[in-house]
Amino acid sequence: MTVTIDDIRAAAAAITGEVVRTPAVNARRLAETTGAAELVLKLENLQFTGSFKDRGALNKLKSLSPQEAKAGVIAMSAGNHAQGVAYHAQRLGIPATIVMPQGTPFTKVERTRSFGARVLLQGDGIDSAAVFARDLAKREGLCFVHPYDDPKIVAGQGTIGLEFLEDAPELDVIVVPIGGGGLISGIALAAKALKPEISIVGVECALYPSMHHSVRNLAPASGGQTIAEGIAVKSPGAITKAIIEKAVEDILLVDEDALECAVQMLVERQKIVAEGAGAAGLAALLAYPDRFAGKRVGVVICGGNIDSRMLAQVLMRGLIRDSRVVTLRIEISDSPGVLAHLARLIGETGGNIIEIYHQRMFYDLPVKKADVDAMIETRNADHVREIVTALADGGFPTRLLSSRSVDLPG
Q1: CA proximity to 182, closest of 155, 160, 145
Q2: Average pLDDT of the chain, as a whole number
């Protein structure tokens, strides 16, 4: 292999004191939910730039010759590698150019610019951005800093494995998100060197199963909009693929629902903000509970750079998914006092009306009838059924508009 445990230990020595030694925290409530005997989270979202990419970027930049550093570096990234390179290049006085796909979240673009890098938005994905970046590197004589397919990058990310097993040596398995494979490659090499019997499991979003398909010799099949844009990579690395084939036991695929649920659960139950890619490890435990039942599991929360608007949407969608916010369409007679009576019934059942909209003009209603669409905060699906039953008993026929998880009486 092109990277050894000695390379990872050298990287640890090179970056110590210049990146955060992130904590490994025991997540008991999440362990109970997933069925794991123990669940330990490695919080790389607490790095200064919000992701594990600080480690590999710094290790690579510190390996440059004086001539390379003076000429400057260029990187392509969907955001986290960009920030890691830009931040540490600024610290070290190295000019940096970052090429980002045009659909990169605003928060990642602005954070990268705030570190003094020249940011260029090119292409519809990381692969097309890479083509542009390599061409520009040749034209301007810049050192290309690959986000994952570089031994120095892999070694830098591998320092997570050293720290994780130092803090949680009893782990049976470590679950790691996969984009291009740099993170899991480094962690697998470090962890296997320290504890050969440990199992390393990778996770990709189902829309971008590039490494999963590559190691199984399946035809490429990637594309679509994903909340986990940080691991939405179409072309896995050659160096990383070789390591993964030897050191990783399995690669699991998770869909968008599982990723959203994982982001929501980390916020609500563990008070941790993770981006979609950062929550992929927990998503795997939610999607494949039998795979991890009864085991001591470590999960790498690899990043926390989620757009605030996206986070708000995920949390609200989670409330709707869990039937804690529902929209009911209620038929009423269009006469004085009826709406007040309806609101009182909902309040007496413990429902909290967030928003209400009175529909008088629906053509399929009698002229003396009206529909009310009420968005209501509830405790759970059982509470929704209780509210609907109370409304029906009070003479208000009701339909549920917003939830997939509630079977109404009748």
Answers
A1: 155
A2: 92
